[in-house]
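Renewal narrative, Specific Aim 1. Our central claim is that a sequence can be written position by position from structural information alone. The example that follows is taken directly from our test logs and has not been curated for this report. It begins with the structure tokens describing the chain, in the order in which they were read.
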């Protein structure tokens, strides 16, 4: 496994596919394609594009798993009895990014190994009704997440926790929900609509905004109906 210093040097020299020089923390398309080569990180909801959720880390194994103990706990929710966490956290360089069922993204500093500190929270202001939210996506220096009521794709600056842009993909459908984790593919973000059991016409949408650190103009989605 490469040292932390060599990893930082590699990232600092990376170039994003859309042409701008990458910063050290940017999750480039190349890093996502080669996510398995960074087993210390978890850069995608399913681990890699083949969605096997396999980790090559072996510090925890069949022999020592019986000795696992709680290292720390971080409260990330509010006071609602119906709250839950269904999302798979993203992890990079000791930081965790977790989304609760209301679409609130929390960045947690877990580098000490024995405590967690919330660095920032991004609250999209979603209506607090029972719903699911299964994760976010890294894209450049952005954490891309979804929220509902209305259905939106939101890009948050990974360093500051500030919303860079958001795109309404509700298309006039009040019952449309976004519950699946977005998928970053090169210069696109792909999200799938939910709500078919309530008569919503499901679709896959591609918000056209680009990854980066300075873009503030909301993206315009290109939607492809399914069925």
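The sequence written for that structure reads:
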């Amino acid at each position: 496994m490469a040292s932390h210093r060599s990893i930082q040097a590699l990232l600092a020299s990376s170039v994003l596919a859309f042409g701008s020089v990458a910063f050290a923390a940017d999750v480039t398309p190349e890093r996502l394609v080669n996510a398995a080569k960074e087993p210390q990180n978890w850069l995608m909801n399913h681990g890699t594009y083949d969605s096997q959720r396999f980790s090559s880390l072996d510090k925890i194994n069949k022999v020592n798993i019986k000795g696992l103990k709680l290292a720390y706990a971080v409260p990330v929710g509010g006071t609602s009895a119906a709250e839950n966490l269904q999302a798979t956290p993203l992890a990079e360089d000791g930081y965790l990014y977790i989304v609760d069922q209301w679409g609130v993204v929390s960045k947690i500093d877990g580098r000490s190994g024995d405590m967690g500190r919330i660095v920032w929270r991004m609250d999209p202001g979603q209506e607090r009704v029972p719903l699911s939210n299964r994760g976010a996506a890294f894209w450049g220096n952005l954490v891309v997440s979804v929220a509902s009521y209305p259905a939106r794709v939101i890009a948050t600056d990974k360093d500051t926790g500030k919303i860079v842009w958001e795109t309404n993909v509700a298309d006039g459908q009040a019952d449309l929900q976004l519950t699946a984790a977005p998928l970053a593919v090169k210069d696109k973000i792909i999200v799938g609509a939910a709500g078919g059991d309530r008569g919503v016409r499901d679709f896959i949408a591609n918000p056209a905004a680009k990854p980066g650190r300075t873009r503030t103009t909301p993206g315009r989605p290109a939607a492809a109906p399914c069925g």
